[in-house]
């Protein structure tokens, strides 16, 4: 039972601005004040850096410096205003909150810088030609990366189809059947070792296996997918294992008490309960390998033509977006080197868009397939 709150007649008659002014005079800033101060500080910082960047391109705008200066201005303003309008305890609390927020912004500055640089430079060639043309017979302007986009989607898709069942079943064994046994400990040890394997080693391993089976010099899309599997499987195993472990044992015991066998309990109870976390671990594994270049250079190779058959052994080289970026930067066109750099930036932006789309899919899966809880 809740106790009704009482308000004084003068407070009931007072308007909102009057109440806010009373809060300020009584030693408390209004709730919107920190956000207003932050917005004003950022506006001042961005205006100063924009004036300094008038004669330069937008790509030269120092967004990292603007954010940092904005947070410094925010710390000063919130500290001074809180010291004037509030008590010393409130002022120190506001200052510490501002410092923690600044530390968070500083941690995000590298990510912001990368995103800003890739987006600004990649938009120059982010057009229909880039997504509908390959680099066949292109020596100067024009051309696109449709062959590299299809290659990335096919190779990453094959790697996901192979890695996810293997990694998920391995994690199920470690959590549900291994129970700290010697075999489970050995698997955990080797999974940890595989997590730290350099990507070039994975590519060399797959290339060596296929060279022994089919002869040296062979390159196919499936080889690139298998090299990515070596990198994906340990990530899927570790992520799925942690998600399965946090499923409450009460759910398993309730299912066993109803006579449900263990395998059906895993399928109907454990996996649906942890599907959101498992999906997140899968997306993280895909994001881990989708930008790999070294193993794909060794296994899938590179080509300027469209190649959609990942199992073709003759002329089966398949271009991917990371390798496309590498080739455009390291071997630019002699006739139009700036066009090669623009295509490289557009390919990098395409990779970012694909990763963002995968994260969006993971969010949707978590929203619609996670177990629903009822309020009491």
UniProtKB/TrEMBL annotation:
InterPro entries: MetI-like, MetI-like_sf, Phosphate_PstA, Phosphate_transprt_permease. Keywords: Cell membrane, Membrane, Phosphate transport, Transmembrane, Transmembrane helix, Transport. CDD domains: TM_PBP2. Its main location: membrane. Pfam families: BPD_transp_1. GO terms for cellular component: plasma membrane. It is a multi-pass membrane protein. It is found in: Cell membrane. The chain crosses the membrane at residues 32-51, 63-85, 97-119, 148-175, 187-214, 220-237, 269-290, 344-366. Residues 149-362 form the ABC transmembrane type-1 domain. GO terms for molecular function: phosphate transmembrane transporter activity. GO terms for biological process: phosphate ion transmembrane transport. Part of the binding-protein-dependent transport system for phosphate; probably responsible for the translocation of the substrate across the membrane. Belongs to the binding-protein-dependent transport system permease family. CysTW subfamily. NCBIfam families: 3a0107s02c. This is Phosphate transport system permease protein PstA. It comes from Microbacterium faecale.
């Amino acid at each position: 039972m809740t106790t009704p709150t009482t308000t004084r007649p003068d407070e009931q008659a007072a308007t909102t601005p009057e109440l806010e002014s009373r809060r300020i005079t009584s030693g408390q800033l209004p709730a919107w004040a920190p956000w207003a101060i932050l917005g004003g500080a950022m506006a001042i910082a961005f205006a100063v850096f924009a004036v300094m960047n008038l004669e330069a391109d937008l790509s030269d705008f120092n967004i990292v410096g603007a954010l940092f200066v904005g947070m410094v201005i925010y710390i000063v303003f919130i500290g001074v205003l809180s010291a004037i309008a509030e008590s010393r305890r409130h002022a120190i609390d506001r200052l510490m909150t501002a410092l923690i927020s600044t530390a968070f912004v500083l941690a995000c500055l590298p990510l912001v810088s990368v995103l800003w640089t890739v987006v600004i430079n990649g938009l120059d060639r982010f057009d229909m030609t880039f997504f509908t043309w390959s680099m066949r017979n292109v020596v100067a302007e024009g051309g696109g990366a449709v062959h590299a986009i299809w290659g990335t989607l096919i190779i990453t898709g094959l790697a996901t189809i192979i890695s996810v069942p293997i990694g998920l079943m391995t994690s199920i064994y470690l959590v549900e059947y291994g129970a700290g046994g010697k075999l489970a400990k050995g698997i955990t040890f080797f999974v940890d070792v595989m997590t730290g394997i350099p990507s070039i080693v994975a590519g060399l391993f797959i290339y060596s296996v296929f060279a022994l089976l089919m002869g040296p010099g062979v390159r196919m899309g499936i080889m690139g997918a298998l090299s990515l599997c070596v990198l994906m499987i340990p990530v899927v195993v570790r992520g799925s294992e942690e998600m399965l472990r946090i499923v409450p044992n009460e759910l398993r015991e309730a299912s066993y008490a109803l006579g449900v066998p263990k395998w059906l309990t895993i399928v109907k109870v454990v996996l649906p309960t942890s599907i959101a976390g498992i999906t997140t671990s899968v997306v993280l594994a895909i994001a881990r390998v989708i930008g790999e270049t070294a193993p794909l250079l060794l296994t899938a190779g590179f080509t300027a033509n469209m190649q959609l058959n990942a199992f073709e052994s003759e002329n089966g080289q398949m271009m991917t977006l990371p390798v496309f970026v590498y080739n455009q930067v390291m071997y630019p066109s002699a006739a139009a080197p700036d066009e090669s750099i623009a295509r490289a930036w557009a390919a990098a932006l395409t990779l970012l868009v694909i990763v963002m789309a995968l994260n969006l899919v993971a969010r949707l899966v978590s929203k619609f397939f996670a177990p629903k809880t009822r309020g009491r």
